[in-house]
Specification:
heterodimer, A: alpha/beta, Rossmann fold, Alpha-Beta Plaits, 2 domains, four-stranded antiparallel sheet, 12 helices, 38% helix, B: mainly alpha
Protein backbone atom coordinates (compact mmCIF):
# COMPACT_ATOMS: atom_id res chain seq x y z
CA UNK A 1 0.00 0.00 0.00
CA UNK A 2 2.82 2.37 0.90
CA UNK A 3 6.27 1.95 -0.60
CA UNK A 4 9.16 4.19 0.29
CA UNK A 5 12.44 3.79 -1.56
CA UNK A 6 15.73 5.48 -0.73
CA UNK A 7 14.04 8.58 0.60
CA UNK A 8 16.35 11.45 1.52
CA UNK A 9 15.46 14.94 2.70
CA UNK A 10 17.91 17.64 3.65
CA UNK A 11 17.36 20.99 5.29
CA UNK A 12 20.50 22.93 4.50
CA UNK A 13 23.39 20.98 5.91
CA UNK A 14 21.29 18.72 8.15
CA UNK A 15 20.03 15.47 6.75
CA UNK A 16 16.60 14.97 8.25
CA UNK A 17 15.81 11.73 6.46
CA UNK A 18 18.73 9.66 5.27
CA UNK A 19 18.10 7.12 2.54
CA UNK A 20 15.28 5.16 4.15
CA UNK A 21 13.19 2.47 2.53
CA UNK A 22 10.24 0.58 3.91
CA UNK A 23 6.87 -0.84 2.98
CA UNK A 24 3.49 -0.90 4.62
CA UNK A 25 0.93 -3.46 3.55
CA UNK A 26 -2.79 -3.07 3.34
CA UNK A 27 -4.50 -3.44 6.68
CA UNK A 28 -1.31 -3.06 8.64
CA UNK A 29 -0.62 -0.69 11.50
CA UNK A 30 2.99 0.38 11.29
CA UNK A 31 4.62 2.05 14.25
CA UNK A 32 7.16 4.67 13.33
CA UNK A 33 9.24 5.01 16.42
CA UNK A 34 12.11 7.31 17.17
CA UNK A 35 13.32 9.95 19.58
CA UNK A 36 12.36 13.57 18.98
CA UNK A 37 14.00 15.03 15.92
CA UNK A 38 14.71 11.64 14.34
CA UNK A 39 12.99 12.54 11.07
CA UNK A 40 9.60 11.00 11.71
CA UNK A 41 7.53 14.07 10.96
CA UNK A 42 9.60 14.92 7.91
CA UNK A 43 8.94 11.46 6.52
CA UNK A 44 5.22 11.90 7.17
CA UNK A 45 5.25 15.27 5.47
CA UNK A 46 6.76 13.69 2.40
CA UNK A 47 4.19 10.89 2.44
CA UNK A 48 1.35 13.38 2.71
CA UNK A 49 2.75 15.41 -0.20
CA UNK A 50 3.41 18.46 1.95
CA UNK A 51 7.00 18.55 0.76
CA UNK A 52 8.90 16.57 -1.85
CA UNK A 53 11.88 14.36 -1.06
CA UNK A 54 15.32 15.45 -2.27
CA UNK A 55 16.05 11.95 -3.43
CA UNK A 56 14.18 8.69 -3.70
CA UNK A 57 10.45 8.30 -4.01
CA UNK A 58 7.38 7.34 -2.10
CA UNK A 59 4.28 5.78 -3.56
CA UNK A 60 0.94 5.34 -1.85
CA UNK A 61 -1.57 2.98 -3.43
CA UNK A 62 0.61 2.96 -6.52
CA UNK A 63 0.61 6.76 -6.87
CA UNK A 64 3.74 8.87 -6.67
CA UNK A 65 3.73 11.59 -3.99
CA UNK A 66 5.24 14.10 -6.36
CA UNK A 67 3.34 13.43 -9.56
CA UNK A 68 -0.09 12.39 -8.30
CA UNK A 69 -0.09 14.54 -5.20
CA UNK A 70 -3.74 15.55 -5.49
CA UNK A 71 -4.99 12.00 -5.93
CA UNK A 72 -2.95 10.80 -2.97
CA UNK A 73 -4.23 13.59 -0.77
CA UNK A 74 -7.77 12.47 -1.57
CA UNK A 75 -6.99 8.99 -0.29
CA UNK A 76 -5.24 9.77 2.96
CA UNK A 77 -6.32 11.08 6.30
CA UNK A 78 -3.63 13.00 8.11
CA UNK A 79 -3.26 14.18 11.66
CA UNK A 80 -0.17 16.41 11.72
CA UNK A 81 2.07 16.78 14.73
CA UNK A 82 0.63 18.98 17.51
CA UNK A 83 -2.85 18.77 15.94
CA UNK A 84 -3.07 22.17 14.27
CA UNK A 85 -6.68 23.39 14.17
CA UNK A 86 -8.48 26.68 13.60
CA UNK A 87 -9.15 27.86 17.12
CA UNK A 88 -11.76 30.44 16.22
CA UNK A 89 -13.88 27.99 14.24
CA UNK A 90 -16.75 25.99 15.66
CA UNK A 91 -16.17 22.24 15.81
CA UNK A 92 -19.09 21.51 13.49
CA UNK A 93 -18.18 24.31 11.09
CA UNK A 94 -14.69 22.95 10.90
CA UNK A 95 -15.82 19.39 10.22
CA UNK A 96 -18.28 20.74 7.63
CA UNK A 97 -15.43 22.53 5.88
CA UNK A 98 -13.32 19.38 5.80
CA UNK A 99 -16.30 17.31 4.63
CA UNK A 100 -16.90 19.76 1.82
CA UNK A 101 -13.29 19.72 0.68
CA UNK A 102 -13.31 15.94 1.00
CA UNK A 103 -16.21 15.84 -1.47
CA UNK A 104 -18.77 14.30 0.84
CA UNK A 105 -22.11 15.00 -0.84
CA UNK A 106 -24.11 17.74 0.78
CA UNK A 107 -26.96 15.45 1.79
CA UNK A 108 -24.66 13.03 3.64
CA UNK A 109 -22.49 15.56 5.44
CA UNK A 110 -24.59 15.86 8.57
CA UNK A 111 -24.92 12.14 9.16
CA UNK A 112 -21.26 11.56 8.38
CA UNK A 113 -20.19 14.23 10.86
CA UNK A 114 -22.42 12.62 13.48
CA UNK A 115 -20.95 9.19 12.80
CA UNK A 116 -17.37 10.32 12.95
CA UNK A 117 -18.00 12.43 16.04
CA UNK A 118 -19.44 9.42 17.78
CA UNK A 119 -16.56 7.24 16.68
CA UNK A 120 -14.06 9.72 18.11
CA UNK A 121 -16.02 10.31 21.29
CA UNK A 122 -17.14 13.87 20.59
CA UNK A 123 -20.43 14.54 22.33
CA UNK A 124 -23.08 17.14 21.60
CA UNK A 125 -21.56 19.48 24.12
CA UNK A 126 -18.17 19.49 22.40
CA UNK A 127 -19.67 19.82 18.94
CA UNK A 128 -21.39 23.01 20.02
CA UNK A 129 -18.16 24.66 21.12
CA UNK A 130 -15.43 26.54 19.33
CA UNK A 131 -12.28 24.52 18.82
CA UNK A 132 -10.31 27.00 20.91
CA UNK A 133 -12.48 26.21 23.94
CA UNK A 134 -11.78 22.49 23.87
CA UNK A 135 -9.33 20.73 26.12
CA UNK A 136 -6.30 19.12 24.61
CA UNK A 137 -7.88 15.68 24.58
CA UNK A 138 -10.93 16.84 22.70
CA UNK A 139 -8.83 18.83 20.24
CA UNK A 140 -7.03 15.61 19.49
CA UNK A 141 -10.34 13.92 18.83
CA UNK A 142 -11.39 16.69 16.48
CA UNK A 143 -8.09 16.17 14.68
CA UNK A 144 -8.81 12.47 14.40
CA UNK A 145 -12.38 13.06 13.28
CA UNK A 146 -11.07 15.38 10.59
CA UNK A 147 -8.67 12.69 9.40
CA UNK A 148 -11.37 10.01 9.35
CA UNK A 149 -14.29 11.89 7.91
CA UNK A 150 -13.89 10.71 4.31
CA UNK A 151 -13.20 7.13 5.37
CA UNK A 152 -9.68 7.11 3.89
CA UNK A 153 -7.79 3.96 3.00
CA UNK A 154 -4.60 5.29 4.47
CA UNK A 155 -4.28 7.06 7.78
CA UNK A 156 -1.17 8.88 8.91
CA UNK A 157 -1.13 9.90 12.55
CA UNK A 158 1.75 11.92 13.90
CA UNK A 159 1.97 11.66 17.69
CA UNK A 160 -1.78 11.30 18.21
CA UNK A 161 -1.70 10.94 21.99
CA UNK A 162 0.76 13.61 23.08
CA UNK A 163 -0.56 15.58 26.02
CA UNK A 164 -3.49 13.33 26.81
CA UNK A 165 -4.23 11.86 30.20
CA UNK A 166 -3.83 8.09 30.65
CA UNK A 167 -7.52 7.31 30.20
CA UNK A 168 -7.72 9.28 27.02
CA UNK A 169 -4.56 7.62 25.76
CA UNK A 170 -6.10 4.19 26.24
CA UNK A 171 -9.26 5.29 24.46
CA UNK A 172 -7.44 6.77 21.50
CA UNK A 173 -5.27 3.67 21.24
CA UNK A 174 -8.33 1.46 21.20
CA UNK A 175 -9.86 3.68 18.54
CA UNK A 176 -6.75 3.41 16.38
CA UNK A 177 -6.71 -0.33 16.79
CA UNK A 178 -10.36 -0.58 15.77
CA UNK A 179 -9.83 1.55 12.71
CA UNK A 180 -6.71 -0.41 11.88
CA UNK A 181 -8.70 -3.55 11.20
CA UNK A 182 -9.61 -2.27 7.74
CA UNK A 183 -7.16 0.49 7.01
CA UNK A 184 -3.49 1.03 6.51
CA UNK A 185 -2.12 3.16 9.31
CA UNK A 186 1.22 4.72 10.06
CA UNK A 187 1.50 5.80 13.65
CA UNK A 188 4.40 8.05 14.62
CA UNK A 189 5.49 8.18 18.18
CA UNK A 190 8.44 8.63 20.46
CA UNK A 191 6.71 6.62 23.15
CA UNK A 192 7.44 2.92 22.97
CA UNK A 193 4.49 1.48 24.92
CA UNK A 194 2.17 3.33 22.59
CA UNK A 195 3.57 1.69 19.52
CA UNK A 196 3.87 -1.63 21.27
CA UNK A 197 0.22 -1.54 22.25
CA UNK A 198 -1.20 -0.70 18.84
CA UNK A 199 1.17 -1.76 16.09
CA UNK A 200 1.85 -5.05 14.42
CA UNK A 201 5.14 -3.89 13.03
CA UNK A 202 7.62 -1.32 14.19
CA UNK A 203 10.27 0.72 12.45
CA UNK A 204 12.79 2.40 14.68
CA UNK A 205 14.38 5.48 13.22
CA UNK A 206 17.28 7.49 14.53
CA UNK A 207 18.94 10.53 12.98
CA UNK A 208 17.08 9.91 9.76
CA UNK A 209 18.14 6.29 9.43
CA UNK A 210 16.24 3.09 10.06
CA UNK A 211 18.02 1.27 12.87
CA UNK A 212 15.59 -1.55 13.43
CA UNK A 213 12.38 -3.00 12.07
CA UNK A 214 10.12 -5.97 12.66
CA UNK A 215 7.38 -7.14 14.98
CA UNK A 216 7.89 -6.20 18.61
CA UNK A 217 8.97 -9.81 19.38
CA UNK A 218 11.35 -9.98 16.44
CA UNK A 219 12.95 -6.73 17.42
CA UNK A 220 13.55 -7.89 20.95
CA UNK A 221 14.98 -11.17 19.72
CA UNK A 222 17.06 -9.62 16.98
CA UNK A 223 18.92 -7.24 19.22
CA UNK A 224 19.85 -9.72 21.91
CA UNK A 225 18.94 -13.23 22.93
CA UNK A 226 20.59 -13.01 26.31
CA UNK A 227 18.86 -13.21 29.58
CA UNK A 228 19.73 -11.53 32.79
CA UNK A 229 19.44 -13.31 36.12
CA UNK A 230 19.42 -11.35 39.36
CA UNK A 231 20.46 -13.47 42.27
CA UNK A 232 21.14 -12.83 45.93
CA UNK A 233 23.25 -15.37 47.76
CA UNK A 234 24.21 -15.50 51.41
CA UNK A 235 27.70 -16.85 51.84
CA UNK A 236 31.36 -15.87 51.75
CA UNK A 237 31.85 -13.39 48.95
CA UNK A 238 35.22 -14.61 47.66
CA UNK A 239 34.08 -18.17 47.43
CA UNK A 240 30.92 -17.23 45.57
CA UNK A 241 32.85 -15.20 43.06
CA UNK A 242 35.33 -17.98 42.50
CA UNK A 243 32.52 -20.39 41.76
CA UNK A 244 30.75 -17.91 39.49
CA UNK A 245 33.97 -17.46 37.53
CA UNK A 246 34.01 -21.18 36.87
CA UNK A 247 30.39 -21.33 35.80
CA UNK A 248 29.87 -22.15 32.16
CA UNK A 249 27.47 -20.27 29.84
CA UNK A 250 27.81 -16.92 31.53
CA UNK A 251 28.92 -13.91 29.58
CA UNK A 252 29.67 -11.72 32.50
CA UNK A 253 28.47 -10.98 35.95
CA UNK A 254 28.51 -7.96 38.21
CA UNK A 255 28.30 -7.63 41.94
CA UNK A 256 25.50 -5.18 42.49
CA UNK A 257 25.48 -4.86 46.25
CA UNK A 258 26.80 -6.53 49.40
CA UNK A 259 25.29 -6.43 52.84
CA UNK A 260 27.02 -8.48 55.54
CA UNK A 261 27.01 -11.92 54.01
CA UNK A 262 24.30 -11.19 51.48
CA UNK A 263 25.53 -10.52 47.97
CA UNK A 264 23.46 -9.53 44.97
CA UNK A 265 24.70 -10.31 41.46
CA UNK A 266 23.56 -9.56 37.95
CA UNK A 267 24.50 -12.45 35.70
CA UNK A 268 24.15 -12.26 31.93
CA UNK A 269 23.81 -15.57 30.16
CA UNK A 270 24.94 -16.57 26.71
CA UNK A 271 22.26 -16.56 24.00
CA UNK A 272 19.28 -18.79 24.63
CA UNK A 273 20.42 -20.37 27.85
CA UNK A 274 18.55 -20.43 31.11
CA UNK A 275 21.09 -20.22 33.95
CA UNK A 276 18.73 -20.63 36.84
CA UNK A 277 19.08 -24.36 37.24
CA UNK A 278 22.88 -24.23 37.27
CA UNK A 279 22.89 -21.38 39.72
CA UNK A 280 20.53 -23.15 42.05
CA UNK A 281 22.68 -26.28 41.94
CA UNK A 282 25.73 -24.20 42.69
CA UNK A 283 24.14 -22.71 45.77
CA UNK A 284 23.00 -26.11 47.00
CA UNK A 285 26.37 -27.75 46.42
CA UNK A 286 28.15 -25.09 48.41
CA UNK A 287 25.52 -24.95 51.12
CA UNK A 288 24.95 -21.23 50.79
CA UNK A 289 21.49 -19.86 51.07
CA UNK A 290 19.53 -18.35 48.25
CA UNK A 291 17.33 -15.38 49.07
CA UNK A 292 16.45 -14.07 45.63
CA UNK A 293 16.55 -15.28 42.07
CA UNK A 294 14.86 -13.49 39.20
CA UNK A 295 15.15 -13.76 35.46
CA UNK A 296 14.41 -10.85 33.14
CA UNK A 297 14.09 -10.89 29.43
CA UNK A 298 15.55 -8.05 27.48
CA UNK A 299 12.54 -5.89 26.71
CA UNK A 300 11.70 -3.84 23.70
CA UNK A 301 12.37 -0.87 25.87
CA UNK A 302 15.99 -1.93 26.23
CA UNK A 303 16.23 -2.47 22.50
CA UNK A 304 14.80 0.93 21.77
CA UNK A 305 17.16 2.55 24.22
CA UNK A 306 20.08 0.64 22.84
CA UNK A 307 19.26 1.40 19.22
CA UNK A 308 18.60 5.05 19.69
CA UNK A 309 21.27 6.03 22.19
CA UNK A 310 24.19 3.96 20.95
CA UNK A 311 27.11 5.98 19.67
CA UNK A 312 28.00 5.25 16.09
CA UNK B 1 -14.82 25.72 -8.20
CA UNK B 2 -16.37 23.89 -5.26
CA UNK B 3 -13.03 23.94 -3.54
CA UNK B 4 -12.60 27.68 -4.05
CA UNK B 5 -16.05 28.15 -2.60
CA UNK B 6 -15.25 25.97 0.43
CA UNK B 7 -12.06 27.90 1.19
CA UNK B 8 -13.86 31.16 0.54
CA UNK B 9 -16.59 30.29 3.05
CA UNK B 10 -14.12 29.21 5.70
CA UNK B 11 -12.06 32.38 5.33
CA UNK B 12 -15.02 34.72 5.13
CA UNK B 13 -16.60 33.19 8.19
CA UNK B 14 -13.38 33.44 10.12
CA UNK B 15 -13.54 37.26 9.90
CA UNK B 16 -16.82 37.15 11.76
CA UNK B 17 -15.82 34.38 14.15
CA UNK B 18 -13.58 36.81 15.92
CA UNK B 19 -14.16 40.44 16.81
CA UNK B 20 -11.88 41.47 13.91
CA UNK B 21 -14.72 42.09 11.48
CA UNK B 22 -16.79 44.25 13.79
CA UNK B 23 -13.86 46.29 15.01
CA UNK B 24 -12.62 46.75 11.48
CA UNK B 25 -15.94 47.85 10.03
CA UNK B 26 -16.66 50.23 12.90
CA UNK B 27 -13.19 51.75 12.77
CA UNK B 28 -13.35 52.24 9.02
CA UNK B 29 -16.78 53.86 9.06
CA UNK B 30 -16.00 56.16 11.95
CA UNK B 31 -12.64 57.14 10.51
CA UNK B 32 -13.74 57.73 6.94
CA UNK B 33 -16.97 59.37 8.08
CA UNK B 34 -15.10 61.79 10.25
CA UNK B 35 -12.62 62.70 7.54
CA UNK B 36 -15.40 63.21 5.02
CA UNK B 37 -17.93 65.19 7.00
CA UNK B 38 -15.30 67.32 8.68
CA UNK B 39 -14.64 69.05 5.37
CA UNK B 40 -18.07 68.53 3.86
CA UNK B 41 -19.90 71.20 5.83
CA UNK B 42 -17.05 73.67 5.34
CA UNK B 43 -16.95 73.32 1.56
CA UNK B 44 -20.69 73.09 1.24
CA UNK B 45 -20.60 71.18 -2.04
CA UNK B 46 -22.61 68.04 -2.70
CA UNK B 47 -19.69 65.96 -3.92
CA UNK B 48 -18.01 62.75 -2.83
CA UNK B 49 -14.65 63.83 -4.20
CA UNK B 50 -13.02 64.51 -0.79
CA UNK B 51 -14.07 61.03 0.33
CA UNK B 52 -12.59 59.28 -2.68
CA UNK B 53 -9.43 61.36 -2.75
CA UNK B 54 -8.54 60.32 0.77
CA UNK B 55 -9.63 56.69 0.33
CA UNK B 56 -6.29 55.44 -1.11
CA UNK B 57 -4.58 56.63 2.07
CA UNK B 58 -7.13 54.99 4.32
CA UNK B 59 -6.80 51.76 2.36
CA UNK B 60 -3.08 51.89 2.94
CA UNK B 61 -3.67 50.99 6.57
CA UNK B 62 -7.01 49.26 6.48
CA UNK B 63 -6.42 46.78 3.67
CA UNK B 64 -3.21 45.24 5.09
CA UNK B 65 -5.17 44.70 8.31
CA UNK B 66 -7.60 42.55 6.31
CA UNK B 67 -4.93 40.46 4.67
CA UNK B 68 -2.19 40.19 7.29
CA UNK B 69 -3.51 37.07 8.94
CA UNK B 70 -4.57 35.16 5.85
CA UNK B 71 -1.34 33.18 5.48
CA UNK B 72 0.73 34.30 8.45
CA UNK B 73 -1.73 32.81 10.93
CA UNK B 74 -1.92 29.51 9.06
CA UNK B 75 1.85 29.29 9.18
CA UNK B 76 2.11 30.24 12.82
CA UNK B 77 -0.64 27.88 13.98
CA UNK B 78 0.60 25.02 11.82
CA UNK B 79 -2.76 24.76 10.08
CA UNK B 80 -0.91 25.42 6.83
CA UNK B 81 0.27 21.82 6.89
CA UNK B 82 -3.26 20.56 7.25
CA UNK B 83 -4.64 22.88 4.59
CA UNK B 84 -1.94 22.01 2.08
CA UNK B 85 -2.40 18.26 2.58
CA UNK B 86 -6.11 18.48 1.83
CA UNK B 87 -6.97 17.66 -1.77
CA UNK B 88 -6.93 21.33 -2.77
CA UNK B 89 -4.84 22.97 -5.46
CA UNK B 90 -2.63 25.77 -4.19
CA UNK B 91 -4.27 28.18 -6.63
CA UNK B 92 -7.73 27.29 -5.34
CA UNK B 93 -6.70 28.19 -1.81
CA UNK B 94 -5.15 31.48 -2.93
CA UNK B 95 -8.25 32.49 -4.89
CA UNK B 96 -10.58 31.41 -2.08
CA UNK B 97 -8.69 33.52 0.42
CA UNK B 98 -8.57 36.47 -1.93
CA UNK B 99 -12.29 36.38 -2.66
CA UNK B 100 -13.14 36.18 1.04
CA UNK B 101 -10.98 39.21 1.78
CA UNK B 102 -12.49 41.02 -1.19
CA UNK B 103 -16.08 40.42 -0.16
CA UNK B 104 -15.27 41.56 3.35
CA UNK B 105 -13.64 44.76 2.10
CA UNK B 106 -16.47 45.35 -0.36
CA UNK B 107 -19.06 45.09 2.40
CA UNK B 108 -17.10 47.53 4.51
CA UNK B 109 -16.74 50.04 1.70
CA UNK B 110 -20.35 49.76 0.58
CA UNK B 111 -21.51 50.41 4.14
CA UNK B 112 -20.46 54.01 3.52
CA UNK B 113 -23.59 54.28 1.34
CA UNK B 114 -25.01 56.66 3.93
CA UNK B 115 -22.55 59.32 2.77
CA UNK B 116 -23.99 59.65 -0.75
CA UNK B 117 -27.48 59.34 0.74
CA UNK B 118 -26.73 62.37 2.86
CA UNK B 119 -25.61 64.18 -0.27
CA UNK B 120 -28.90 63.39 -2.01
CA UNK B 121 -30.79 64.65 0.95
CA UNK B 122 -28.88 67.94 1.00
CA UNK B 123 -28.23 68.63 -2.67
CA UNK B 124 -28.02 67.26 -6.19
CA UNK B 125 -24.77 65.38 -6.57
CA UNK B 126 -23.62 63.96 -9.92
CA UNK B 127 -24.18 60.24 -9.88
CA UNK B 128 -21.43 59.32 -12.38
CA UNK B 129 -18.43 60.17 -10.20
CA UNK B 130 -20.04 58.49 -7.20
CA UNK B 131 -20.62 55.20 -9.02
CA UNK B 132 -17.23 55.46 -10.68
CA UNK B 133 -15.65 56.23 -7.34
CA UNK B 134 -17.09 53.11 -5.77
CA UNK B 135 -16.10 50.89 -8.70
CA UNK B 136 -12.62 52.37 -8.63
CA UNK B 137 -12.41 51.93 -4.87
CA UNK B 138 -13.29 48.27 -5.16
CA UNK B 139 -10.74 47.69 -7.93
CA UNK B 140 -8.02 49.56 -6.09
CA UNK B 141 -8.90 47.81 -2.85
CA UNK B 142 -8.67 44.45 -4.62
CA UNK B 143 -5.21 45.37 -5.92
CA UNK B 144 -4.07 46.31 -2.40
CA UNK B 145 -5.57 43.03 -1.14
CA UNK B 146 -3.65 40.92 -3.63
CA UNK B 147 -0.41 42.62 -2.57
CA UNK B 148 -1.23 42.16 1.11
CA UNK B 149 -2.18 38.52 0.61
CA UNK B 150 1.06 37.84 -1.20
CA UNK B 151 3.12 39.47 1.56
CA UNK B 152 1.23 37.61 4.27
CA UNK B 153 2.49 34.42 2.63
CA UNK B 154 6.10 35.47 3.10
CA UNK B 155 6.09 35.52 6.89
CA UNK B 156 4.51 33.84 9.84
CA UNK B 157 4.30 37.08 11.79
CA UNK B 158 1.14 39.11 11.28
CA UNK B 159 2.71 42.38 12.40
CA UNK B 160 5.54 41.95 9.92
CA UNK B 161 3.00 41.13 7.22
CA UNK B 162 1.02 44.25 8.09
CA UNK B 163 3.96 46.65 8.05
CA UNK B 164 5.49 45.21 4.90
CA UNK B 165 2.14 45.36 3.13
CA UNK B 166 1.65 49.00 4.12
CA UNK B 167 5.08 49.74 2.69
CA UNK B 168 4.55 47.81 -0.51
CA UNK B 169 1.18 49.43 -1.19
CA UNK B 170 2.60 52.83 -0.26
CA UNK B 171 5.48 52.31 -2.69
CA UNK B 172 3.23 51.26 -5.54
CA UNK B 173 0.90 54.14 -4.78
CA UNK B 174 3.36 57.03 -4.59
CA UNK B 175 5.32 56.16 -7.72
CA UNK B 176 2.33 57.50 -9.64
CA UNK B 177 2.02 60.67 -7.54
CA UNK B 178 3.03 64.06 -9.00
CA UNK B 179 5.77 64.64 -6.41
CA UNK B 180 7.63 61.56 -7.55
CA UNK B 181 6.86 62.03 -11.21
CA UNK B 182 8.30 65.56 -11.40
CA UNK B 183 11.61 64.27 -10.09
CA UNK B 184 11.86 61.71 -12.88
CA UNK B 185 12.97 62.08 -16.49
CA UNK B 186 10.03 62.42 -18.85
CA UNK B 187 10.09 58.96 -20.42
CA UNK B 188 10.15 57.29 -17.01
CA UNK B 189 7.48 59.58 -15.63
CA UNK B 190 4.92 58.34 -18.13
CA UNK B 191 5.69 54.74 -17.29
CA UNK B 192 5.57 55.31 -13.56
CA UNK B 193 2.35 57.26 -13.66
CA UNK B 194 0.79 54.29 -15.44
CA UNK B 195 2.25 51.88 -12.90
CA UNK B 196 1.08 53.85 -9.86
CA UNK B 197 -1.99 52.50 -8.09
CA UNK B 198 -3.58 55.91 -7.62
CA UNK B 199 -3.77 57.51 -11.08
CA UNK B 200 -6.14 54.87 -12.41
CA UNK B 201 -8.36 55.28 -9.42
CA UNK B 202 -8.60 59.02 -10.04
CA UNK B 203 -9.51 58.51 -13.67
CA UNK B 204 -12.24 56.00 -12.84
CA UNK B 205 -13.33 58.33 -10.05
CA UNK B 206 -14.13 61.01 -12.63
CA UNK B 207 -16.91 58.73 -13.78
CA UNK B 208 -15.06 57.67 -16.92
CA UNK B 209 -14.59 53.96 -16.97
CA UNK B 210 -11.70 53.26 -19.27
CA UNK B 211 -10.86 49.66 -20.11
CA UNK B 212 -7.15 50.45 -19.64
CA UNK B 213 -7.73 51.27 -15.97
CA UNK B 214 -9.71 48.11 -15.41
CA UNK B 215 -7.12 46.01 -17.21
CA UNK B 216 -4.41 47.64 -15.13
CA UNK B 217 -6.06 46.67 -11.84
CA UNK B 218 -6.90 43.19 -13.04
CA UNK B 219 -3.29 42.65 -14.10
CA UNK B 220 -1.97 43.80 -10.73
CA UNK B 221 -4.40 41.45 -8.97
CA UNK B 222 -3.61 38.47 -11.20
CA UNK B 223 0.11 39.12 -11.00
CA UNK B 224 0.22 39.10 -7.20
CA UNK B 225 -2.18 36.16 -6.88
CA UNK B 226 0.07 34.28 -9.27
CA UNK B 227 3.17 35.22 -7.26
CA UNK B 228 1.38 34.13 -4.12
CA UNK B 229 0.58 30.74 -5.62
CA UNK B 230 4.16 30.29 -6.75
CA UNK B 231 5.46 31.11 -3.28
CA UNK B 232 3.05 28.71 -1.64
CA UNK B 233 4.20 26.06 -4.10
CA UNK B 234 7.84 26.88 -3.50
CA UNK B 235 8.03 24.44 -0.61
CA UNK B 236 7.57 21.75 -3.23
CA UNK B 237 10.38 22.84 -5.50
CA UNK B 238 13.36 20.61 -5.68
Amino acid sequence: MITVTNLTKRFGPTVAVDNISFEVHRGEILGFLGPNGAGKSTTMRILTCYMPPDEGKATLAGLDTFEDSLKIREKIGYLPENTPLYNDMGVVDYLKFIAEVRRIPHSKRKTRIKEVAQQCGLGKEELAKDIGQLSKGYRQRVGLAQALIHNPDILILDEPTVGLDPNQIIEIRRLIKDIGEEKTIILCSHILPEVQATCKRIIIIKEGKIVGSGTPEELAAQAQGEEIVYITIQGPQEQIQQQLDKLENTQEYHLLSSENTSHRFEIISKKGIDLRKDLFQLVVDNQWSLTEMQKTQITLEDVFKQLTTEEN
Amino acid sequence: MNNVYAVFKKEFRSYFNSPIAYIFITAFLVFSGWLFFRGFFLIGQATMRPFFSILPWEFLFFVPAVTMRLWAEEKKMGTMELLMTLPLKDGEIVIGKFLAAFLFLAITVLLTFTFPLTLYYLGKPDIGPILGGYIGALLMGAAYLSIGLFISGLTENQIVAFILSVFACFGLFIIGEPIVLTALPGWLAGFFSFLGLGAHFQSIGRGVIDSRDIIYYLSVIIFFLFLNTRFVESRKWR
